[in-house]
Amino acid sequence: MEDKKIIDFEGGEFKREIGLFGGMSIIGGIMIGSGIFYLGSIVLTRTNMSMGASLLCWLLGGIISLLGGLCFAELGTSSPEAGGMVIYLDKAYHPIVGYMFGFTSLVLSGSGSISALAIAIPTAFKSFLNLSDTVIKLIAVLIIIALTIYNCFGIKKGAQLQNISMIAKLIPIIAIIFAALIRGNQSPDLSIIPKDGNVNYAEYFSMIAFATIASLWAYDGWTNLNPVIEEMKDPEKNLPRALIFGIGGVTLIYVLFNFAIYKVLSFEKINLMIESGDLYLGTEVALEVFGKFGAILVLITMLIAMFGSMNGIIIASPRYYYAMAREGHFFKSFGMLHSKYNVPTVALIWQAIIAIMLVLIRSLDELTALVVFSGMLFNLLNILAVFIYRKKYPKLKKPYKVWGYPITVILTALIFAGLMINTFIDDPITAIIGLLVPLIGGIIYIIFDRKLKK
Prior knowledge:
Layout: E1 5-7, E2 13-15, H1 20-31, H2 39-46, H3 51-78, H4 85-92, H5 95-123, H6 126-129, H7 133-151, H8 155-183, H9 201-219, H10 235-264, H11 267-275, H12 281-290, H13 292-316, H14 318-327, H15 345-361, H16 364-374, H17 376-392, H18 407-426, H19 428-453
């Protein structure tokens, strides 16, 4: 497909500046954050310290994310419009559903992720520089402002920064993996079944599901490429490829990284670290294989990873709000593109304002918990939208179709539904808040709808 500009209804225009590697960098850049160094402890704890079951959960998390990505590849190539999930939910169900997702992203999941990452970056220096909570929040606000301003100067600059940060964090992560696999002298027990053989399969599958949810925290972000599809080169080919290669590559890295941990650290040491509250197993591995330089390497890698993840979300999320405004039920200024830099500037600025507000009123733990559940419902609805698209729009061009349809789509939907139920049982307060925010968005949609009809 020839590169071309897409004329926007408000007089601006999108530019196709993102290639295949750029698409993979957006996905991988958002997915691979600081969690690679500590989430392994949480997954391991939830599997009752079974290394084999833990690796299984990391693999399952990647497979689930990849299945979801295949669904998004079909939806994205069928409706190649800026806005991603907002567009698919609009067309599959009703515009109010897409609006509820976009509103949730603006006030909670998208802006909340930016806030959480902005707080996490200076928090990494807290022990070194003795930073107070006030100073940490001030630095977080400055980071949000700086990255937002940078991305106001065009998608090309944002994508270039994403490519650089992706490469910069992959090099040390891969170096740690290779060094650990070569120098590690442990022989981890990778059996996924308890040694005594007394297995209650209902409890076992519940345990695996609970641990897999923890791994999915690390995989979160694979939905964020679709919103920028109008800015991708040859999206019919590059969107599916970027999703498959991006998610697949991240899965490989996560599984190998956690296996490398087990090759270097003894079971006893891992157990002692987790019991003492030190969850950063990846950091300890870097110290073991690289000495004091390992601590510096991990800190730099974590900062780059969080920075890249934050930049990717700042790029992707405003396209949701752009789509909401273009549909007619949000502030018109959100649907305007800058005449020179071709980005939704107003949406970018308001996203930053809300993210800053969240930094000032919420803690890092609160933000992280709220963000996790809020996306599950809409991921499930988008996966089910594949069925609706095929039935509702049989003549719609589908350059890419999900492998193994309908079995793969049914399986993916059931998995996400099960994870939602499991999360609701384990953390009902967060789940309820995650449902209330979209309902508020629905009310605001109705208000705009009445004004529009008048």
